[in-house]
């Protein structure tokens, strides 16, 4: 999953420059740029800090909710896959 565009939108929405974000995260400006262009691995710790700094808890909540849905559907993966391959697609 690529988050670069989301990170950039969050930073700009908070009125922050790459330099100010880099200072807040204690990292280089080039690493902030790499995160925003998906050239640097986004770790959970950085994502959490980024969300706190930009005041975007909704992003974390969305990711958490998505992860829970995936976990809940895991036991049914073979049924869903078999159904999709059989020509019928479930819509969630």
TrEMBL record:
PROSITE patterns per UniProt: HTH_CROC1
Taxonomy, superkingdom: Bacteria
Domain (HTH cro/C1-type): residue spans on this chain: 7-60
GO molecular function, one term: DNA binding
InterPro entries hit by this protein: Cro/C1-type_HTH, Lambda_DNA-bd_dom_sf
Pfam family, one: HTH_3
Full protein name: XRE family transcriptional regulator
Species for this entry: Oceanobacillus profundus
């Amino acid at each position: 999953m690529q988050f670069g565009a989301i990170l950039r939108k969050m930073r700009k929405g908070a009125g922050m420059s790459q330099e100010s974000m880099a200072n807040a995260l204690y990292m280089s400006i080039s690493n902030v740029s790499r995160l925003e262009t998906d050239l640097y691995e986004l770790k959970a710790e950085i994502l959490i800090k980024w969300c706190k700094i930009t005041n975007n808890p909704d992003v974390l909540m969305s990711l958490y909710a998505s992860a829970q849905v995936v976990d809940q559907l895991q036991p049914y993966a073979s049924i869903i896959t078999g159904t999709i391959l059989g020509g019928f697609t479930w819509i969630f």
